[in-house]
Structure prediction request, 112 residues.
Amino acid sequence: MRLIPLASLALLASLSTAPRADVVQMPAAEPALVAVDKPAKGITMAAVLRRYGAPSQKHPAVGGGSAQQPPITRWDYPAFSVFFEHDHVVDAVIPGQPPAVQHTDELKSTTP
Prediction:
């Protein structure tokens, strides 16, 4: 009878000492993407209209029910989209060009 528990302990001991690690592969630096002149953060809707003209599409505002959820409006131009909070630019993005990953040295695996 003692052989079964000892065999179980030996099996558990061998499994618990197996090393585990995750390897995170970061993609190589990609060539620079095409630069597009887009609105700077903080400028007004009127300034965007003066500089870039009328957008190809204006989306209705979403949110705005409280101070914690201000109205956000999106205007689409051929090369970029502009997001406004009230009437000021909060961001302008180029579809298909996500921002570069910052601080890659701080990335950590979530697998124990």
